[in-house]
Structures are given as structure tokens and as C-alpha cells.
Amino acid sequence: MHDHHVLLADAESATRRLARRGFAFDPEPLRDLSSRRVAAIKTGDDLRAQSKQVAAEVQRQAKAGGDIEGLKALARDLKEKIKESETEVAQLQAELREVLLGIPNFPLDEIPDGFSEEEARELRTWGEVPKFDFEPKDHVDLAEAMGIFDFGRATKLAGPRFAVGRSAGARLERGLVNFLLDLHTQQHGYEEFSVPHLVNAPTMTGTGQLPKFEEDLFKTSVGDRALYLIPTAEVPLTNFYANEILDRRQLPLAFTTHTPCYRSEAGSYGRDTRGILRLHQFAKVEMVRLCEAGQALAELEKMVGHAEACLQKLGLAYRVVVLAAGDTGFSSEITYDLEVWLPSQDRYREISSCSSCNTFQARRANIRTTDADGNRQFVATLNGSGLPIGRTVAAILEQGQQEDGSVVMPEALVPYLGFSRIQPDGKTV
């Protein structure tokens, strides 16, 4: 969320910057709300000052034996007007917040223009794209032939966009989770968390899912209590210190966790309907960092390096791109995507997004720290996938496939799996 004073101080710049991401910012309604709020606050302050004067006059007249009935009536009238003023201020403040909650973060000036993945700028590639002497299969054909994933029965259980892992497939998912968590906690300095998978509306608001993206969320209601299934562990991890003031000596903080993620995928029907690339429920190991605002971009580079290390240790060919302004997420000022090579599609596909939100989320969630002079400042928040389990499994299957239908496992995973190859019949060796 933005500080409305900043938006209005240079409305022309704000309009230009937000237009880069396709958001039409009209400063006038915001300016009107802000002016009315200021006026209402001043009216309330004036009424309170007048009320104090009347109260003092009541005491003086009472001591002098004067008639105070008229003054008491005036005091009651002022008290009622003060209540009305406070109600008006609260209403205007709520309206102002509602407007601000719908305005996305500013994209950094240095990221490319554009509104689609085609306009992302490639920064680097890593690894050799695998070449095959045969027509490579996609992960669905491989997994179903080996019997390690069952998409048909998953649809029977829950409908489309679900998957069931079994035998070596389930072991591969579990081993991958443990490998990633060990890597982040033992080598990258992240603290591991176990977090709720259901959160309340203020928590969803803090990271920007509400109110704008409610249609993308799964919501539950029991009695008068409504909770949301998390679309990513970024939500509980980032909001962990909501409405708190952190000691700057604690920063930066680095958190990781493994959770299921739940997304309705509203608006994406027809895209990646086959396999495990875009499911309603999928598992992910998430990374979140909190730091001082001036360190956000340096911390982002660290996080991208940690996500890259995961892919490198798994031996998966990938590239890194910086997204165009119009393709950058609502809360983000800059996003790096790591895209892994999928042989069946003959292209790179997104496997991890790492973003700096700077103070945008912290202002919504009210997460602050103190600077060197003791002044309170909002922290910067960053988040990244490190990694999603399903998409990583798809890449392992496709890049490691052999002509006989077997799949060779990445060497780094073997100690976690207890096998180095999945045979065409699903057995392991």
C-alpha cells in the first residue's frame, strides 16, 4: 500500500509509473478524500478545543455561583458533535484505505516495459539444454506410463487440476521437499517454520491478495468465521510480524517453510490444463526475507541466488529473466523469474518467481523497524519460490528421461530418495 501523501505530492510521476503496469491512476478522487479527511480532523480538533474551554467555564461559573445550565447544554451539544466528527473521520479513513488497497506497487524504472512474458528481459542461462536421440515425452506421459502419478483418479476425487502421486512419485515429492528445506536451512541461512494453511482476511490483505484478488482464493466458512486457504506460504510468513516493531539489529530475517498452496486459477482456464504445471493444490517450499528498505535489492539478489542454487544442485538447465512492468505482480516492484527447460515444450517455463515488494506489503501489514536515529520505518519484504514441488518434479522427469522410458534422478537427490532411477514399470533402482 502507498502513502497517499507520496502519491499526491507528485501525482504526475505516480500516474506515469502506474501506467507502465496498466493501471489508470486518477489522483483527484484520492485528493478529494484526503482533503475531506483533513478538514474533518480539523473540525474535530476545533470542537474538542471548544469543549475544553466550555468545561473550564462551567467550573469557573459554578465556583462563582453563576447560572451554568446554558453552558452544560452547550457542552452536551459539543460532545455530540465531537462523536459525529469522529465517526466522519473514521468513515473517511476507511474510504481512503479502500482506495489505497486497490492501487498496485510502483514498478522500478529499470525493469522493461511491456505486459506479457514475451517482453521479459533474459539476464542469463545456466546448464546445457538436454538433447535427445529420440522424441522426448512430456511429464504426464512419463509419469502415467510408470504409474507414479494418477491424474484420472485425482479428477474422480476432486475434479480437474488435481494430481495424485504414488509410489516413486510420492517418494520423489517427499525427498525433494526435504532436500530443499535442508539446503535453505543448512546452507542459505533460513529459519524453518510450520505455519497455518488457513488464514484470516487481515492476513490476506497484508500481502495484497485481498481485496483485489478474492476470486483467486479458496474460502471456507464455519458459523460466522471465514478463513482463506493460503495461495502461497508468503502469506503467513510475511504477516508473522504484522503490527509489530522489529529491532533493526535482527534484520535481515530469512524464513522458509513447506506448505500446500491453493489457487482457483481464475482466468487461466485452457492454460496448462495437462499435468502438474497449474493445479488447484500444489506443494511449494517458500522463501521470505525482511530487511531495511535500503537493502531490498541486495537481499533480492541473494534470494535469486538461493533459488538458482536449488536448480544447479539438481542439474536442471534454466534461465533467469526480469519481468516487464505490466507483467509484474500487484505487490512487487521487481520480479525475477527462473525458467526451467521443459524438453516436451522445447522452451523454458517459469519455475520460481523472486520479488521485492519493498515497503508496499509492510505498510499494509504494519511491520516496522527503527532506523539509526530511532525513527520508525516500514521494513521491506521479499518472497520467492525455492522451489515448487510439482514443476520441479516435471522438470526432473523430462530432463532426466531415457530412451527406454526410465528416468535418471539428480545425484543430489539420491540420498533423500534411496534410489537413482525410476524404471519404465515404476520400480526403482
SS element count, helices: 13
Main sheet strand line-up? 1-11-12-13-16-10-9-4
State the major sheet. 8 strands, mixed
- Low-pLDDT parts are none
Estimate what percentage of residues fall within beta strands.
Answer: 15-25%
Oligomer classification: single chain
Describe the fold and architecture:
The chain is an alpha+beta fold and 429 residues long. It has helices at residues 4-9, 11-19, 27-64, 69-101, 139-146, 151-158, 168-186, 201-207, 234-238, 296-313, 360-365, 389-399, 414-417, and strands at residues 121-126, 149-150, 164-165, 191-192, 198-199, 219-222, 225-229, 244-246, 253-262, 281-291, 318-322, 334-342, 347-358, 367-370, 376-378, 380-388, 407-408, 421-422. The protein has 13 helices and 18 strands. The strands form five sheets. The protein has an eight-stranded mixed β-sheet with strand order 1-11-12-13-16-10-9-4. A hairpin with a 2-residue loop joins strand 6 (219-222) and strand 7 (225-229). 35% of the residues are buried. The model has no long low-confidence stretch (mean pLDDT 95).
